[in-house]
Amino acid sequence: MQMYDLINKKKNKEVLTKEEIEFIVNGYTKGSIPDYQMSAFLMAVCLNKMNHEETAHFTMAMANSGDILDLSKVHGVKVDKHSTGGVGDKTSLVLSPMVAALGIPVAKMSGRGLGHTGGTVDKLESFPGFSTEISSEQFIENINKIKLAIVGQTANLAPADKKIYALRDVTATVDNISLIASSIMSKKIASGSDVIVLDVKTGSGAFMKKYEDALALAKEMVEIGTRAGKTTYALITDMNQPLGRAIGNAIEVKEAIETLSGNGPKDLLEVSLTLASYMVLGAGKAKTFEEAKKILQGTIESKSALDKMAEFIRAQGGDSEFVYNPELLKTASICYDVKAPCDGYVKEILTDEIGMASLVLGGGRVTKDSKIDLSVGIIIHKKLGDKVTKNEPLATLYANDDDKRKEAKKRIIGAYVISKEEVERPPYIYSIVT
Ligand code: URA
Questions:
Q1: Of 44, 83, 117, 120, which is the most exposed, with the fewest CB atoms less than 10 Å away?
Q2: What are 79's strand-pairing partners?
Q3: Which residue's CA is minimally distant from atom 1 of ligand 1?
Q4: Low-confidence stretches of the chain (pLDDT beneath 50)
Q5: Sequence ranges of the chain with CATH classification 3.90.1170.30
């Protein structure tokens, strides 16, 4: 088989076989196919597309390029959730203990990554002593014992995706639904769970700005997951404003704990409960969505989800006292209110800009070696549709550096569009793909 012929085939809009796709992915990962040939192939895919079958083969070839987490020793149906990412997205911290409190094993492999805030792993490190660097034996033992464990992503998880994604980034070949879906799903499939619930975000703070693109991505990922024998659901949820009110690391953990204590923001609770309900349905612990949601709500009312969070933090070396006293979590030294410039209603929030303000404060990583400040962040006081009066706080910044605080303030002011007319609030959830 020659890579030249396979590039030509895709250029001529032909369909590639499983063996041909495996040849491409394995050859590129090993280094026998050079960057220039892989770039040409990826561009041909962007222009001429891959069908569902080719996309599924591409995904499996990437998933099989490294370690596949073996969860066969975990008792019961293992569930996992993945988000395409958004500002203030902390649903994993809320739903994982709720689902585990129902006796359903939640086996999560989470990354750190680049972004406006750290990933779930970074956020959890706000608990002194907490570590996701646990052995695979400890990981399995914790899941069997307390039904929840989170481990850091191994370097050898879908290495083909890592290499291909880096190439796509510099060859203008990121924005193809097949390539995005296979990239995300290769890592999820390699993570070993039986049920995958996907949160595909759409709006001004999302990777997929347009609903139609988010829907196409959701459909493709569900197709891949189903072909791989996984029960897969995808929810399309709103990201035209931050989820909840907190953006940062320790500050998001605090909000997650408040939500598990029954005092969280409505949007965060609703999105978390809905995602969790599909995890419960997938695990076969409820017959209907309504039943699943009701028993999950029960874990908040009984405080069993909060206790589960404490048990999980303790099992991974963290101080669980912080779960019951979240005010102990570290907050930055400067607390500053960003005030509304005029009267009116919040018409639009440029959510990416709010994310950038968090990044500027030091809450996220610009490069993979950047150090995160877990104590900085933003609390949003005004959300879409809210009435504002001049000089009322739009947001509060928590900073450790006054220059960064000034830059973040500028970005927050620029992110708010205020109109004289009343504004309708967007829904939390748009649709579900099963
Ligand atoms: N996230 C991924 O993991 N892969 C993509 O291709 C895009 C977003």
A1: 44
A2: 106, 195
A3: 184
A4: none
A5: 331-419
